[in-house]
Design goal:
Low-confidence stretches: 656-687
Largest sheet: 5 strands, mixed
Mean pLDDT: 82
Strand content: 5-15%
CATH class of the largest domain: Mainly Alpha
Shape: extended
Structural class: alpha+beta
Radius of gyration: 47 Å
CATH topology of the largest domain: Poly(a)-polymerase, middle domain
Length: about 675
């Protein structure tokens, strides 16, 4: 009946935080003596019926959730062009709690998921959302936050396409048997309220608890649920280069009729009894995809070091080895949902299971069993009535509150304006100093080039000048070379041959010209290099002069990094101030909306009442005057004025005629009772 990590010897003082585990270890809690009886499960069933009815989603809540989803979809798709937002999770599967979160998946291929989530987190902070938390260490990174107005929690993940198929799987399971939904939401509610349903806190996620609950219903001797996965490769989906088999049987395709007729209370009681007395992870793996608990050997998921038993004895061990309490993802069979668990999380889970089982055996109320353990991490009930606190408050008090809020807003706006101005000045000074540093570095570089270039210039000038002593223009040498070459190679037109002596002289001159040509080319090269370096030197000198004119003498103010630090410090001060300003503006808007609503309501009521009363009084006065005229009573000048304003004496005669006609009509109708009256329901008025 003990978990494997409870079977070793260790110092029990190390588990003081988990009283039920400690009592079990010391023998003060004997599970073999706890047996659930019909009275226990009957009492729990009554409690669960009330609980489940309280979890029905109101139209107002659904409207608010849809509004948030629509708003976030618009914001995200505008921010990330070409993206798509999908909803998944418990509300889509039907296994939701009233204050469950909104799960959104942003499908976007433009940037890395973690980078996108950082942008989203920054955007949500700027929009004034509460408790924005970026979790990048999870298998699927997410950003969590709470909508500041409705207090509804929201999770946003990137490219988490498989979760959409997981949602459909859970929806199908919940539709097979009417007991599944109340059973699962009861387990989820207990786990959440007792602080063991948050993967970021080292415990199972809500999704993992759902799979554990479904697997229990699959593993009973008389099963409540079958396995709905086909696993025949008939329907696959590729995500990030990996293929997943997502084929599922529809309810019509399943040849399954349960022989289990237990109540929801009996199923919940049995769930806790099973976890308490027969800890499934000693040798098993929770596998909804297989429809049973697999052995660790079958799955090849044997627990790796360091074990839980090692961590109990060595406080330095913070992270456990793989497969501590394995729960297989139905589609991603290589993913173990227990990879997030830490030592404290496992002991919390074990302790809460033992506690729930003992309390059920004592006929404890469900509210006590699921009493909130950590209020600071448990989501509040959704806030659906924005004016709840104002309905019983005098409007004068609301106006006074509004006046105070405006005063606070003025102070905050002054603070924001002051810091923004300071930050702007710091950024300008940082840029100026940075530019100064860049110019100084550039000047230093140019200056370091001047001296070696000057040496090179002097050297080239010397070479050029020394060669200029024997310099003959290149074009002259080229022309002479061409002339001599032509004489030596072309037969004279007059048929006169050159003498041998003349020919020798010409060849000698030709070779001398070639030497002169090489010398003149070298001289020209030196000259061109000299001119080029001279131009570079002059350009550098002019550039240094320009830099000196552009540089500003502000070195005494410090380094540009000092002003960068100041700008960052002011930004950190600005963020909470801007957040407070947003909150004040929203609260002012809320109070003003309420006062407008009240004013509109009062004006309508007053106008309606005033108009109807005035009409009633006037009609009554006119009728009184007309009665006096008909009866022959005397009437005053005021009565005459009233009569003249309402049709004069002729109206009295019309009134008589109308009255008489009406009486006759009424009498006629009394005698016209025919079967046609039975068709009144078909008149246009009643349709």
């Amino acid at each position: 009946m003990l978990a494997d990590f409870e079977q070793i010897d260790f110092d029990v003082s190390k588990i003081e935080s988990w009283p039920y585990v400690k009592a079990l270890k010391l023998g003060n809690l004997d599970l073999s003596k706890i047996n659930l009886i019909a009275e226990n499960t009957k009492h729990l069933e009554t409690e669960l019926v009330k609980f489940v009815s309280s979890q029905k989603v109101s139209e107002n809540l659904l409207k608010r959730r849809n509004g948030i989803t629509k708003h976030l979809t618009k914001v995200l798709t505008n921010k990330f062009r070409g993206s798509k937002v999908s909803t998944f999770g418990s509300f889509q599967s039907g296994l939701n709690l009233t204050n469950g979160d909104i799960d959104l998946c942003l499908q976007f291929n433009g940037e890395k998921p973690k980078k996108v989530l950082k942008k989203i987190a920054r955007m949500l902070n700027e929009d004034g959302m509460d408790n924005v938390k970026l979790i990048t260490t999870a298998k699927v990174p997410i950003v969590k936050f709470i909508d500041s107005q409705s207090k509804i929690p929201v999770d946003i993940s990137i490219n988490n396409s498989l979760a959409v198929h997981n949602t459909e799987l859970l929806r199908r399971y919940s539709s097979i048997d009417s007991r599944v939904k109340p059973f699962i939401i009861s387990i989820k509610y207990w786990a959440r309220n007792r602080g063991i349903s948050d993967a970021s806190m080292g415990t199972f996620s809500s999704y993992a608890w759902t799979l554990i609950a479904i697997n229990y219903l699959q593993s009973l001797e008389n099963k409540v649920l079958p396995n709905v996965l086909k696993k025949d490769g008939s329907q696959t989906v590729e995500i990030d280069g990996i293929k997943y088999d997502i084929g599922m049987y529809s309810n019509n395709e399943l040849d399954f009729v349960t022989q289990n007729h237990s109540t929801t209370g009996e199923l919940v009681s049995g769930f806790f009894e099973s976890l308490a007395k027969d800890w499934p992870w000693n040798n098993g793996v929770i596998s909804v995809g297989s429809g049973k608990i697999l052995t660790r050997k079958e799955k090849n998921w044997v627990a790796n070091k360091p074990y839980i038993s090692d961590a109990i004895q060595d406080s330095q061990i913070k992270r456990l080895g793989k497969f501590s309490l394995p729960v297989e993802d139905p589609f991603d069979n290589k993913h173990d949902l227990s990879r997030v668990l830490d030592v404290e999380g496992i002991f919390e889970i074990r302790d809460e299971v033992l506690r729930a089982y003992q309390l059920i055996s004592e006929n404890t109320d469900w509210d006590t069993i699921t009493e909130i353990k950590y209020p600071e991490i448990t989501p509040n009930e959704p806030k659906l009535d924005l004016f709840e606190d104002l309905r019983n408050q005098e409007d004068d008090k609301t106006r006074q509150d509004l006046k105070i809020l405006y005063e606070q807003l003025k102070v905050i706006e002054n603070s924001v304006s002051l810091r923004e101005s300071e930050r702007s000045d710091a950024i300008k000074m940082s840029k100026a100093l940075r530019r100064n540093a860049e110019l100084a570095k550039e000047q230093s570089g140019l200056s370091s080039e001047l001296r070696p270039r000057r040496t090179k210039i002097d050297e080239l000038q010397s070479k050029r000048d020394s060669s200029n002593n024997h310099y003959i223009p290149v074009h002259f040498i080229e022309e002479e070379l061409s002339r001599v070459y032509s004489i030596l190679t072309t037969e004279a037109t007059n048929r006169v041959e050159l003498s041998l002596e003349k020919e020798k002289q010409l060849f000698s001159w030709f070779f001398e010209l070639q030497s002169m040509y090489e010398h003149s080319k070298m001289t020209r090269k030196y000259h061109r290099e000299f001119v080029k370096l001279l131009e570079q030197q002059q350009h550098s000198i002019e550039h240094i002069k320009d830099i000196r004119q552009e540089m500003i003498e502000i070195q005494s103010f410090g380094k540009f990094t000092d002003f960068d630090d100041l700008a960052m410090k002011l930004l950190k001060e600005l963020n909470p101030l801007k957040r407070e300003r947003r909150n004040l503006r929203r609260e002012i808007g809320r109070l003003e909306a309420w006062l407008r609503k009240q004013t509109h309501f009062n004006n309508n009521n007053h106008s309606k009442h005033k108009g109807s009363r005035k009409k009633f009084v006037n009609n009554r006065k006119v009728d009184d005057v007309k009665s006096k005229v008909v009866s022959g009573d005397s009437f005053s000048l005021q009565d005459l004025e009233v009569l003249l304003k309402n049709g004069g004496l002729s109206s009295v005669n019309q009134s008589k005629t109308k009255t008489r006609k009406g009486k006759n009509k009424h009498k006629k109708n009394n005698y016209s009772v025919t079967p046609q009256r039975g068709k009144r329901g078909k008149s246009s008025k009643n349709q």
